Structure formats: C-alpha cells, structure tokens
C-alpha cells in the first residue's frame, strides 16, 4: 500500500511540475516536488529506502524527460541516501529540519548533476549554475518542504485521532 501511495505522489508531483508549477516560478526556478517528497521520506525511513525512492523518482523523471536516462536516477538515489543518513541523527519533530534538509538536498542533487554531466563531456560554468539555478531553487524548495512537512504532520495527527476515535471511513 505504501508503494502505491509513493507512486501516486511521484506521478502527481511530476504532472504538477509539468503543468501548473511552471506558472509559479520564482526567481526563474520552479519547484522540485519529487525531491521534496524524497527528502521527507528519506528523513523518516533512512538511507536504504531513501536511495530506493530516489532511484525510482529519478528514473520516473528521466523517462518523462526522455534524455540522459539515468542522470536523475543516479543523482536522486545518492541524494536520498545522503539525506537518509540523518534519520537517527536529526530531530525529526523539529519543523525546520525538513526545510534545511531540502535545501541541502537540492544543492547536493544539483552539484551531482553538474558533476555527472561534466564527466559525460558537457561543459557548464559551475559557479554560474550554482548562483543562477541551484541556490535559488534550494531556497524555494526549502520553503515548500516546510509547508509539505506541516501538511504531512497534520495528516498523521488526523489519522491517529481518527483511529483512536474509531470513526468509520
């Protein structure tokens, strides 16, 4: 059941990124919903599950984009693993942690993509890419991760209350 929920979140996030979110760009960057979900999931589930979800979401994104298949899969997998390492080291109840981790996840993923494309023979100005895309995208997605985490926590509290009360449906 959890697999289907994560798949639905991934597909929904990909559809939103392709349709609605380009209209909501800030500073020329758009949200990366898949990385936000990956960050929150890896933070709670650990490095191995974070890596698996990162690979799945990255592959989904690669197949959708249709070029450089494996680039996002590898970068999101490594990002999910790295973020998952914080599972036992960070206070998951602190509402700032997911935002901070999303900030670093976007930076990590962006640098990995730049490094992998450099290995493949493409030349991008690293400093310009960092200033113009990666840092603004990190701030934007960190704010969205805070919102997403609060929605997630609210849903958990609602489900717990509903189970405790025993209300149907």
TrEMBL record:
<comment type="similarity">
    <text>Belongs to the MreD family.</text>
</comment>
<keyword id="KW-1133">Transmembrane helix</keyword>
<keyword id="KW-1003">Cell membrane</keyword>
<keyword id="KW-0133">Cell shape</keyword>
<feature type="transmembrane region" description="Helical">
    <location>
        <begin position="65"/>
        <end position="83"/>
    </location>
</feature>
<keyword id="KW-0472">Membrane</keyword>
<dbReference type="InterPro" id="IPR007227">
    <property type="entry name" value="Cell_shape_determining_MreD"/>
</dbReference>
<keyword id="KW-0812">Transmembrane</keyword>
<protein>
    <submittedName>
        <fullName>Uncharacterized protein</fullName>
    </submittedName>
</protein>
<dbReference type="GO" id="GO:0008360">
    <property type="term" value="P:regulation of cell shape"/>
</dbReference>
<feature type="transmembrane region" description="Helical">
    <location>
        <begin position="95"/>
        <end position="120"/>
    </location>
</feature>
<dbReference type="InterPro" id="IPR017225">
    <property type="entry name" value="Cell_shape_determin_MreD_prd"/>
</dbReference>
<dbReference type="Pfam" id="PF04093">
    <property type="entry name" value="MreD"/>
</dbReference>
<feature type="transmembrane region" description="Helical">
    <location>
        <begin position="132"/>
        <end position="152"/>
    </location>
</feature>
<dbReference type="GO" id="GO:0005886">
    <property type="term" value="C:plasma membrane"/>
</dbReference>
């Amino acid at each position: 059941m959890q697999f289907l929920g994560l798949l639905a979140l991934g597909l929904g996030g990909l559809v939103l990124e392709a349709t609605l979110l380009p209209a909501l760009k800030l500073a020329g960057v758009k949200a990366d919903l898949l990385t936000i979900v990956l960050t929150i999931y890896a933070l709670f589930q650990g490095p191995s599950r974070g890596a698996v979800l990162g690979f799945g979401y990255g592959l989904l994104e690669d197949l959708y984009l249709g070029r450089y298949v494996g680039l996002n899969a590898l970068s999101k997998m490594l990002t999910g693993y790295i973020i998952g390492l914080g599972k036992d080291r960070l206070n998951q109840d602190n509402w700032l942690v997911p935002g901070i981790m999303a900030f670093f996840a976007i930076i990590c993923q962006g640098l990995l993509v730049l490094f992998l494309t450099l290995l493949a023979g493409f030349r991008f100005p690293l400093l310009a890419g960092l200033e113009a895309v990666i840092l603004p995208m990190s701030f934007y997605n960190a704010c969205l991760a805070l919102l997403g985490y609060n929605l997630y926590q609210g849903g958990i509290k609602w489900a717990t209350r509903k189970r405790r009360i025993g209300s149907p449906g």
